[in-house]
Amino acid sequence: MSVAFTKEDSAETAAETILPDRVVSPHPNLVTEAGLKALEMQLQLAREACAVANALEDVNERRRLSAGPLRDIRYFVERIRTAQLMPHPPANGIVAFGSLVTFSREDGRTQRFRIVGEDEADPARGSMSYVSPIARVLMGKVAGDLVSFGGQEIEIIDVA
């Protein structure tokens, strides 16, 4: 629609009110209990931000400030709708979704990651997505196994 037929002050303001949807992964939406709770919390925060924006009198400012929260609401509703809550990993020492895996690299570094869902993954905080290349290589392995990743060997030290 042309800006000439809207109440926005400019094309720039109109563009700020229409944000593209966040990309939804094509992979199954596997989640841990904590991951599902985090999605629900993020949805609640987006709804609160939208309510704050909708309380503004200035229509242009209201549209601009609600665009992001509205996009986030659509995303989180979809992620919660498609969430598949996974059980805790079995205590059999086999790397699975939810496992905490400790491994060492050829360069001497030891790393520890929990394998989680895509929305929950945060490598800087010790979690990686189950669809990440390294998680895929580690799945189904046990402590003591050597796997090849990125041109080097990785040894699994512990699976909890």
Task: Describe it.
- By secondary structure, the chain is an alpha/beta fold.
- 36% of the residues lie in helices and 20% in strands.
- The chain has 4 helices and 7 strands, in the order αβααββββαββ.
- The strands form 2 sheets. Strands 5-4-3-7-6 form a 5-stranded mixed β-sheet. Strands 1-2 form a two-stranded parallel sheet.
- Helix 2 (33-54) runs antiparallel to helix 3.
- The chain is elongated.
Task: Outline the fold blueprint.
Elements: H1 11-16, E1 30-31, H2 33-54, H3 59-82, E2 84-85, E3 100-105, E4 110-116, E5 127-129, H4 133-138, E6 146-149, E7 152-159
Helix pairs in contact: 2-3
- Share of helical residues: 25-40%
Major sheet strand order:
5-4-3-7-6
Would you identify the regions where 5 or more consecutive residues have pLDDT less than 50? none
Q: How many beta-strand elements?
A: 7
Q: Estimate the strand proportion.
A: 15-25%
Oligomer: single chain
Distance between the termini: 56 Å
Biggest sheet descriptor:
5 strands, mixed
Tertiary shape = elongated
